[in-house]
Structures are given as C-alpha cells and as structure tokens.
Amino acid sequence: MDYYRQFSLKNYNSFKTEASAKIFCQPKNVEELRRCLTEHPYEQKLIIGGGCNLFFTKDFDGLVIHPELKGLREISDEEEEDEDIFIEVNASEDWDGFVSYCVERGFAGLENLSLIPGTVGAAPIQNIGAYGAEVKDVIHEVVAINMVTGEAVSFSNAECEFGYRDSIFKRTNKYLIISVVFHLKRTFVYTPKYFDLNKELEDIEEPTIQDVRNAVIRVRQRKLPDEKVLPNAGSFFKNPYISQEHVEKIKTDYPELPAFLQKDGSVKTSAAFLIDKAGYKGIRIGNIGTYPNQPLIIVNYGSSDGNDIVRFMREIQSAVKDTFNIELEPEVRIF
Q1: Residue 166 has pLDDT above 80, yes or no
Q2: What is the per-residue pLDDT for 79?
Q3: How many CB atoms lie within 10 A of CB 252?
Q4: Which of 92, 114, 167, 235 is catalytic?
Q5: pLDDT per position as a tens digit, 231-251
Q6: What is the distance in angstroms between the CA of the first residue and the CA of the last residue of the chain?
Q7: 165 carries an active-site annotation
Q8: d(CA 126, CA 331)
Q9: What is the largest CA-CA distance in the chain?
Q10: Interval 12-41 mean pLDDT
C-alpha cells in the first residue's frame, strides 16, 4: 500500500473544492486498513467514501483514508428463507449499484433510496433517507474498526443510535465502517409514503419494486442536479424540528407551511420551503448558488474555494433566521 504526500482532494469531494491531504492512502483490505492506522497513530484521520456529503475549506493536516473494500454476500436464514434475506456489503461498494442489485432480484426495502450518490459505508453514518424511507429501517448490523485500537466492533441496529441524519458513527468519529448487513424482504407491496412518489406512480394500479425505483429516479433527476455535471452535495441543510406554537405563528403569514407532527410533539418542517420563502430559491452569488429546481441544494458553478460555499451558506442561514426565527443546520460536513 502506497502513501501519498500533499495529495489533492479536489476529486474526492463532490463540490470539487481545492485542498490537499498531508497523507493519503487507499487500503484495499482490512489488513491494510489496520496497518495505515497503526503506522500513523498520532495523525488526525479522515475517512472518505464517495465524498458526496463533505467539502473542504482548507488543507487537511493529517491522514485521509479512502478505503477500497469491495464485495457482498447473501446470507441465507433457513428458518425464514421464504421471506427474509440478509446481505452483507463491504463499505466501498457503490450505494446505488447495490440498490439496483437488490431491486433486480426482488429484494425489497431499499427502492425508495435509489440514485442517492455515495458508498454503502457512508449510508449508516448519515442515516440516509428519501421519499419516506431511512436506511436505519433495513440495517441489521454494522461492522467497524475502532480507529484507536484497530479492533473490529459489531453494532446492532439499536447500538448504532440512529437519528435524523445522525448515528453514533457521525457523532463520535471513532469508527471506520468496513461492512453493513441489511435485512430485506423477498416480497414487495407498495405502501404510499411520499406525495411526489405517489403522484409519479398514480397511473400504475399495483406498482412493482422496479416501478418504484424507476419513479424515484425520474423524480430525483427532475429535481436534483447531477453532481458530476454541476458540483453539489445533495441536500445541504437538515429539515428543522420546531414547536407547534412556532408553526402556528409562522402560518399566520405562510399558511402553506409544510408541517409534520412527530411522536414527541415537535413538528418537522421543510428547509426547502423556508429557503424559498426567504428569497433564496435559484439565487446565485458569484460562483455559488441554490439550484433553481430545489433550493435545498447549494451548487458550485466554478469556485475552487470552499470558503465561498460557507459564506453563501451563512447568508441563507441569516435570511431564514430573520424571516422565520429558525436556525438551519448543515447536513453536509465541512472541513
């Protein structure tokens, strides 16, 4: 395994911002992974998968690890073979490639998460979600390496401490995920969850799992830019949770405010709606802007400096705070 010094990270973040890593390596198996950890015990460490949910504002003074852990295996369960299927997938596998693999075989549970960029290992870190589904709903187990001890640790679904775009892996930054075990179903029945998806499927009486994947892809392609064509990191902000009293106050001026009551009594609302009404849909300042079809997406029209993105982000946050008294929290990781 080779180590590279002052290695450019421009092609390892989907915003294409310019930065260098003090040290960079690409371990191809768990043994090499452990070796790069033990050989650099005192270096600050950053794990990069597809780089689809982060960007850089400066050089990284430490070790950047870009694992290349590929492969998957289906795990049969004799007692529940007719309905349940468990699949262990190594962390560097392409996420949408894995979703396609499952849909082609009729394994249900991931179809609503089609066309999300990134790797399998990144999915539990962020607890990715879309169109009424979250990856936590189908994760059985996560296997990771403790980056201090090099020890392999297995996490049950509960031990992952999943939250909204959150997990123990994101909060602690102590573990490097090497594989994920998914619990899927061999039979599929479409359950309406999300307005845009329901509308896309309204002319199909009994949608198949492939129909759902195709519909998700069509909706995403209409609304969201291709990061290979127009650099972005997907949804930039988390949807905020506010009180019911706050909702009622906002609705006096904005009665169409999306509001989804949660079990704990809080209300989830739409960051895209807030950004739009604060006047930032389709706005461009210099080489940074919001995507015209979806204000939740910040896009890079040509800047190599991540600080330009940060300045634009703060301007949106300030406008939403002034208009709604709501603080938007970035979903994207900023280094």
Answers
A1: yes
A2: 56
A3: 7
A4: 235
A5: 999 999 999 999 999 999 999
A6: 26
A7: yes
A8: 9
A9: 61
A10: 96
Give the residue among 104, 75, 100 at the shortest CA–CA distance from 181.
Answer: 75
> What's the whole-model pTM score?
0.90
Domains of the chain, first to last: 3-65 (3.30.43.10), 72-223 (3.30.465.10), 241-334 (3.90.78.10)
Query: Residue 250: is it exposed, middle or buried by C-beta count within 10 angstroms (0-12/13-18/19+)?
Result: buried
pLDDT in tens, 37-83: 999 999 999 999 999 999 999 999 999 999 999 999 998 655 556 78
Catalytic (active site) residue 20: no
Long-range own/partner contacts, residues 268-272 (CB < 8 A, 24 or more apart): 268/239, 268/240, 268/241, 269/239, 269/240, 269/241, 269/242, 269/326, 270/239, 271/235, 271/237, 271/238, 271/239, 271/240, 271/296, 271/328, 272/296
Structure tokens at 241: 């949770």
**Which residues have CB under 8 Å from 167's CB, separation 6+?**
124, 125, 126, 127, 136, 160, 161
**3-class DSSP state of 159:** helix
Find where tokens 């979806």 sit.
294
pLDDT in tens, 259-307: 999 999 999 999 999 999 999 999 999 999 999 999 999 999 999 999 9
Q: Choose the catalytic residue: 165, 167, 227, 303.
A: 165
Strand runs labelled E in the chain = 3-8, 20-25, 44-47, 54-55, 60-65, 72-75, 84-90, 129-130, 133-134, 139-146, 152-156, 175-185, 232-235, 241-242, 260-261, 267-268, 284-285, 288-291, 294-300, 333-334
Indicate the pLDDT class of residue 193, thresholds 50, 70 and 90: confident
Q: What Rg value do the Cα atoms of the chain yield, rounded?
A: 21
92 catalytic? Reply is: no
167-181: pLDDT as tens digits: 999 999 899 999 999
- Which strand ranges, in their side-by-side order, compose the sheet holding 294-300? 232-235, 294-300, 288-291, 284-285
CA distances from 261 to 194, 241, 268, 274, 327 (A): 15, 9, 6, 17, 19
